[in-house]
Amino acid sequence: MYAVKANPSPDLLQILWDSGITHYDVASLGEVRLVSRTLPDATLCFMHPVKAEEAIAEAYFDHGCRTFSLDSIEELEKIVRATEGASDLTLCVRLRVSSDHSKLSLASKFGAMPGDTKQLLFAARQAADALGICFHVGSQAMSPEAYSNAMERVREAIVEAAVTVDVIDVGGGFPSAYPGMEPPALENYFETIHRAWESLPISYSAELWAEPGRALCAEYSSLIVRVEKRRGDELYINDGAYGALFDAAHIGWRFPVQLLREPDSNARDMEFSFYGPTCDDLDHMAGPFELPADIRAGDYIEIGMLGAYGSAMRTAFNGFGSDETVIVTDEPMASLYLAEDERREASNVVTL
Ligand SMILES: *Cc1c(COP(=O)(O)O)cnc(C)c1O
User: Fold this and answer.
1) Cα separation of 132 and 71, whole Å?
2) In the Cβ-directed half-sphere of 100, how many Cα atoms lie within 13 Å?
3) 260-273: per-residue pLDDT in tens?
4) From the CA of 213, how far away is ligand 1's center (Å)?
5) Is there a smaller number of Cβ atoms within 10 Å at the N or the C end of the chain?
6) Which residues line ligand 1 (CB under 6 A)?
7) What does the alpha-carbon distance between residue 325 and residue 308 come to, in Å, rounded to a whole number?
């Protein structure tokens, strides 16, 4: 399934649907309604472990959602109450797992702790038609080991609770390629997960699920910005921390960049940082971003790999930002979906 929060663009949802993705991981009533409206035949899975009761009820009764995640007895009681004791639920118990291999942790907030999982799995089993176990290793997991470690937690939990499990959901966290962050090929992740899956004490008919966000949409879009001013090695651009560059500002994420100028500059590259357009110092992207040394006000820059958590995070703070979207068909600035040699070429584009 696709984790909608990474990029809720209706155009993208339609592309994913046309490419064969039938299940959607939604986390709020807004996402439930969006997917329901955009893809009326899609299967919704409400995978946020802390939900509003009225959101559960509307998802279940008005939008046909039957799959819910939970990490506490209170949430289980909420789901049972809001669905009026429904007998057709798939309930996924979220386990707390380490985020050690990931660039963005999801480890502190959600997930049942080892001491609580036995009772919770047992209670969920009573209420569920199908019982699942899910986890999230954190976003941009740079090693497949993140998944084998988490699957070991799953194995312990199943053995301890001695319940029949119908679904294992390995969550999101599958990486994309960014400057300075080149993960192993996705095949390595799939092999690791399959190996761990084969050793689990689950029934022959159990299903293996995943809910990637980033890996399915990071390559989907670029942002074109204009340089409004240059001060030494600092470029003042017209998007930033409150726009599509939230991750570049707040967690120092680097994205591939290229100058869009004709004729092309033949100056050598140097390192720049960016200031966004709002009036405060927080609106700063440290980079470094490598661009030709003769870049100046009026130049345009393509910032690539912003399909995941880029436009999804935009605000209209201070009146900045643009809604102009242009559909293009050229290759993304980096890709995890090319063969090894093509990948080397694509990564050259990033680092040149
Ligand atoms: C954010 C999220 C995802 C997607 O994570 P990625 O790192 O983008 O793959 C999947 N499942 C849940 C429950 C999430 O919160």
Assistant:
1) 12
2) 9
3) 999 999 999 999 99
4) 6
5) C
6) 3, 5-6, 25, 47, 136, 139, 171-174, 211-215
7) 16
